[in-house]
Amino acid sequence: MMLIDSHCHLDAAEFQGQQPELIKLAVAAGVQTIVVPAVDRDSFARVSALAESPHCVYALGIHPMYIMHAQADDLRALEQLLAQADPRLVAIGEIGLDYFVPSLDRDKQHEFFVAQLKLAQRYDLPVILHVRQAIDDVLKYLRRHPVRGGIAHAFNGSMQQAEQLMAMGFKLGFGGACTYTRASKIRKLGAELPLDSIVLETDAPDIPPSWLENGEYNRPQELLKIADVIAQLRGILVSQVAEITTKNVCEVLPKLAKLYTPAKVLL
Ligand SMILES: [Zn+2]
């Protein structure tokens, strides 16, 4: 079994000092690779340092919830790092729009989202999207500034919106949310979307799956059980879910695919 956690904030303060142990536990649970997205300029150095582990790769970007403190100079810093073309830097992310939090300045969100889509075009990189109650605007900006695709993390839209994202080269991220029986809309999507369009993620330390109680942090090792939930929803084997979702991540993150030599895949 080989799984990829396509979205994990392994650099989060909650995990301070525990990363080597968490990576070990994840690998023991079949999670071969963890994609660690940045959220702001301060996190750029942290996520790239984590990617010194052979089990981690990273993305750089400015997250809409961190836009308030972001400055134009942060975009220049981002571009300088993109220009270095580190093989372990596999995407721009996480970026997007968040209309759920009313205090977030929408104009500034739009400005940073568009600027980062333009960087994705310039450096031919996929993007990792954060979208909350803003999917129509995200689709609008993607149409104006087409990128090579990527991942819509923690997807929570309609089947029709899923199809529009798929047509633009995106895979849809499924994680802890689909483990709750009351999440009927997300579970229906997890059951009915083409398996070729699904990638798995934990979003750890956030979105703890249903079996983590008492405010426990989510961790990348939970991905195997999340894969099992998707397998049960679809009535297929978890090994099939692992195989296809891993292939899907490699398809949208070609620089990650390049890191897998045939010999490594056999391990
Ligand atoms: Zn995230």
Describe the protein in words.
The protein is α/β, with parallel strands linked by helices and 267 residues long. The protein has one domain: TIM Barrel (Alpha-Beta Barrel). Helix content is 43%, strand content 16%. It has an 8-stranded parallel β-sheet with strand order 1-2-3-4-5-6-7-8. Helix 7 packs across helix 8 and helix 8 crosses helix 9. It is globular, with a radius of gyration of 17 Å. The mean pLDDT is 95. The site of zinc ion has 7 residues, from loops.
Instruction: Determine the CATH topology.
Output: TIM Barrel
Taken in chain order, the helices and strands follow as EHEHEHEHEHEHEHEHHHH
Low-confidence stretches: none
Distance between the termini: 10 Å
Query: In percent terms, what proportion of residues is strand?
Result: 15-25%
Strand order of the largest sheet: 1-2-3-4-5-6-7-8
What is this structure's SSE topology?
Layout: E1 3-5, H1 19-28, E2 31-37, H2 41-50, E3 56-60, H3 72-83, E4 89-98, H4 106-122, E5 127-132, H5 135-144, E6 150-153, H6 159-167, E7 170-174, H7 184-192, E8 198-200, H8 223-234, H9 238-252, H10 254-259, H11 262-266
Parallel strand pairs: 1-2, 2-3, 3-4, 4-5, 5-6, 6-7, 7-8
Bound molecules: zinc ion.
Zinc ion is lined by residues 7, 9, 37, 94, 130, 153, 203.
